[in-house]
Inverse folding.
């Protein structure tokens, strides 16, 4: 990596990449942009790891018989896929990379409020990831990524504590990132950068940070209780002496449902930047989109019980959790409508980031609406623990977040590296991701509805055609991830120099040099206009 | 806000040496640090909140068993420790005040008083833990556990004792961290680091110390007092 | 910009906090039925408010700090109310009971 970045041809002007050389200048940096790249590399490694597990799962499911791996190994595969993808890729994904890189630039600051804590958060992340990897190497975990008691606390014979410690530790990296963002956004905005002028990406990350700060401690304490229960048999989740295993689920989902919004809100922020840029129009309903981010952060904390409908939770609690879950659809729908309205009568160009944005809007809508099916008490009883659930949350997590993440990477790649990626390949792989994703996961709605349960390595033969489709789609999807990896690395050396603002986008980050200098701005900028003033800029351009 | 820093020079010379390059002035730096501490305390509220929540669930589930554990506890220990922590909080507040006014001597004395009472708290807690051990009230590994006071509640009381150790244990860990911070702050104070324009670390660690005090203010009634008279609804 | 609170105020608050500690200890020795818990928690909440308001001088802090302090307790309340909502109403279900 550093050899590529040291290439003197990358850029002639001083910037954050060539400001200092050597591994120390990276591992001890406090520059938010360099830390963003450290995160980018580490979460990509974890994404690849989680992807390998996913592929093994899909290969096993090619045939109805459990022939490739035995059921114990299969349990470990889906558990480790979930743990790695959720806690070590999706949760940090956009905030720790694009958020870290862009938030100070977007608000006109030189860095985050606490640069050293920012670096610390990366080290905490790495420590957590090492624990997770250690658990995998020693023999894996088989509890499912949700670590449900009493299986995880009493019966499982795998490395539950090691994995739980990894998740516990990485939680603090998430907390410190969120804390840093909140303070930065409150205290470090440039003159004139009022709350009403903040880019929606910043609003989205602000809401995300609130969830990280308020939710993560609860899952930390829950996992600590789990580890104590498992290590010392204290009985807190053991029904044999009066403990209640469902309490674990309450506390776990108090964080982990809002965590779904940690994983999707930043993606929505990316889409809110990309859509106006490639529609050459101001965003429609700015204040609604901003407020709906906060709305999601707040209402998202009131719905966790929809994961407990069939556990023996009180049906009265089921009622209010079901009702409130429906309510989250409102702010989400507000966003979708506003993005669509932004595109209406815009002059749309089909650049790669915009293709990802199209994909996001469609896939997220399907993912969100199927969530309403699952929030409905009666329907949920039928669909719980089937592939319908798998399809639903992959439409949100992969179709939503991963697609938005890729879109964002393409959108800001010129700013991050100063180079353009090859546009043709970009469009091609965006298409592969969209097609591959749908071929993989749409069939799972059907098999799930027909009753194929999740988390089994064997299934009824009548589901084979659809499962083969899924596996084929997963291969296309994998190709859609590998191609960008290749051309992104290629572009570091051979990409066309991007210039400061290749998309003609608004926003302070585009007024800086590409790649930016270490302190982003030579002169603290003064903001005088609303975000997304595309109409004004177009006029000036024409006139 | 209007001043502009040259890119390469981290610090401009007309500023306090404690001003970090990415802040405009000392006020912004102070505000960010204290606000950052408050956001951190927000996570601490949720951290202990999760514990208190789980505890409340079981308390609500097994009120009689719970009353029996409260009856076992000696509330004098709890009350004494509450008083001790409140004194340390007072001296902490006075330490911050002294730092703000630039009274170096008073700052150091107040920090020492704070640390002294913090240690007192832990010593008293240690005696109490020892008593629990002697009384066979440490149900880890299902061992060292005897509940002849109310054998019909032995199982449920075991859970409640685990919560007791879990909550007071986490609180004690926070106290230890607090003492570590105070030691650092005291060393800095002795070197004369702080002045009326720069006392952010004192302020921020003060907030932390008070928070740990607040946690105990709730642990005391919840673990020692409620149900102490054995007549619980 | 940061106002200085007189020592007298801090000491006064400390006196009140100490008295409240004795009061809550004393009240706990008397059997008041369900009111024991109410009084104990009310006193604890009062003491907490004093510490936050004066020792942590939220009194003179910005509305932003006040909002965040409030948010902390609000979110804790969400956790409590919605979780306990399940446990309390389990008993109302036909044939339902705790574990
Ligand atoms: Cu959920």
């Amino acid at each position: 990596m550093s050899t590529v970045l040291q290439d003197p041809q990358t850029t002639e002007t001083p910037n954050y990449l060539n400001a200092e050389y050597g591994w120390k200048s990276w591992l001890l940096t406090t520059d938010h942009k360099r830390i963003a790249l450290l995160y980018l590399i580490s979460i990509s490694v974890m994404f690849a790891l989680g992807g390998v597990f996913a592929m093994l799962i899909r290969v096993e499911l090619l045939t109805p018989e459990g022939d490739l791996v035995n059921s114990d190994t299969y349990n470990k595969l889906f558990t480790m896929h979930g743990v790695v993808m959720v806690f070590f890729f999706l949760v940090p994904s956009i905030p720790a990379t694009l958020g870290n890189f862009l938030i100070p630039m977007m608000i006109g600051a030189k860095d985050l409020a606490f640069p050293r804590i920012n670096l610390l958060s990366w080290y905490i992340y790495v420590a957590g990831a090492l624990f997770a990897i250690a658990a995998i190497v020693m023999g894996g975990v088989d509890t499912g990524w949700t670590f449900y008691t009493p299986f995880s606390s009493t019966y499982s014979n795998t490395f539950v504590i090691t994995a739980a410690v990894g998740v516990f530790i990485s939680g603090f990296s998430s907390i410190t990132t969120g804390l840093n963002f909140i303070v930065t956004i409150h205290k470090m905005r440039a003159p004139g950068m009022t709350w009403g002028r903040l880019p929606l990406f910043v609003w989205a990350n602000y809401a995300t940070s609130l969830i990280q700060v308020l939710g993560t401690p609860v899952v930390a304490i829950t996992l600590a209780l789990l580890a104590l229960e498992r290590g010392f048999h204290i009985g807190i989740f053991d029904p044999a002496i009066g403990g209640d295993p469902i309490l674990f689920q309450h506390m776990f989902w108090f964080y982990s449902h809002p965590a779904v919004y940690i994983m999707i809100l930043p993606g929505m922020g990316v889409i809110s930047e990309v859509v106006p840029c490639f529609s050459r129009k101001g965003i429609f309903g700015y204040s609604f989109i901003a407020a709906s981010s906060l709305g999601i952060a707040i209402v998202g904390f009131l719905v966790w019980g929809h994961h407990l409908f069939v556990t023996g939770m009180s049906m009265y609690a089921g009622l209010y959790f079901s009702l409130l879950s429906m309510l989250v659809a409102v702010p989400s729908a507000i966003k979708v409508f506003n993005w669509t309205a932004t595109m209406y009568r815009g002059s749309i160009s089909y650049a790669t980031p915009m293709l990802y944005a199209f994909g996001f809007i469609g896939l997220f809508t399907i993912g969100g609406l199927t969530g309403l099916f699952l929030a409905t008490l009666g329907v949920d009883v039928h669909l719980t623990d089937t592939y319908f659930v798998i399809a639903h949350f992959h439409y949100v997590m992969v179709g939503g977040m991963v697609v938005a993440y890729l879109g964002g990477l393409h959108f800001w790649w010129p700013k991050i590296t100063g180079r353009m990626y090859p546009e043709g390949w970009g469009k091609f792989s965006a298409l592969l991701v969209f097609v591959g994703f749908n071929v993989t996961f749409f069939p799972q709605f059907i098999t799930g509805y027909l009753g194929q349960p999740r988390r089994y390595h064997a299934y009824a033969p009548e589901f084979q055609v659809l499962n083969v489709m899924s596996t084929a789609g997963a291969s296309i999807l994998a190709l859609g991830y590998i191609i960008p990896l290749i051309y992104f690395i290629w572009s570091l050396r051979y990409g066309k120099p991007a210039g400061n603002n290749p998309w003609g986008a608004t926003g302070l980050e585009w007024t800086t040099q590409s790649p930016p200098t270490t302190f982003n701005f030579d002169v603290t900028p003064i903001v005088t206009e609303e975000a997304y003033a595309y109409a004004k800029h177009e006029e000036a351009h024409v006139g | 806000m209007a001043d502009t820093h040259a890119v390469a020079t981290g610090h401009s010379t007309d500023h306090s040496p404690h001003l970090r390059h990415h802040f405009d002035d000392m006020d912004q730096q102070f505000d960010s640090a204290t606000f950052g501490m408050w956001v951190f305390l927000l996570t601490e509220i949720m951290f202990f909140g999760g514990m208190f929540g789980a505890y409340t669930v079981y308390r609500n589930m097994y009120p009689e068993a719970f009353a029996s554990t409260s009856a076992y506890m000696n509330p004098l220990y709890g009350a004494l420790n509450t008083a001790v922590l409140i004194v340390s909080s007072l001296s902490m507040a006075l330490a911050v005040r002294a730092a703000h006014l630039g009274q170096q001597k008073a700052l150091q004395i107040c920090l020492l008083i704070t640390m002294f009472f913090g240690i007192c708290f832990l010593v008293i807690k240690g005696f109490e833990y020892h008593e629990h051990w002697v009384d066979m009230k440490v149900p880890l590994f299902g061992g060292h556990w005897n509940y002849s006071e109310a054998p019909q509640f032995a199982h449920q009381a075991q859970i409640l004792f685990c919560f007791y150790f879990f909550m007071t244990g986490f609180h004690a860990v926070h106290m230890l961290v607090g003492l570590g911070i105070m030691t650092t702050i005291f060393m800095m104070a002795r070197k004369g680091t702080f002045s009326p324009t720069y006392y952010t670390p004192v302020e921020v660690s003060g907030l932390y110390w008070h928070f740990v005090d607040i946690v105990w203010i709730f642990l005391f009634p919840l673990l020692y007092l409620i149900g102490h008279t054995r007549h619980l609804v | 910009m940061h106002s200085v609170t007189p020592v007298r105020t801090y000491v006064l608050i400390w006196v009140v906090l100490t008295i409240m500690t004795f009061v809550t200890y004393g009240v706990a020795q008397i059997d008041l039925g369900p009111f024991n818990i109410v009084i104990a928690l009310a006193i604890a909440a009062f003491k907490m408010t004093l510490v936050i308001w004066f020792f942590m001088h939220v009194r003179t802090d910005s509305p932003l700090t006040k909002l965040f302090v409030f948010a902390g307790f609000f979110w804790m309340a969400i956790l409590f109310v919605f979780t306990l909502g399940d446990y309390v109403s389990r008993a109302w279900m036909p044939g339902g009971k705790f574990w």
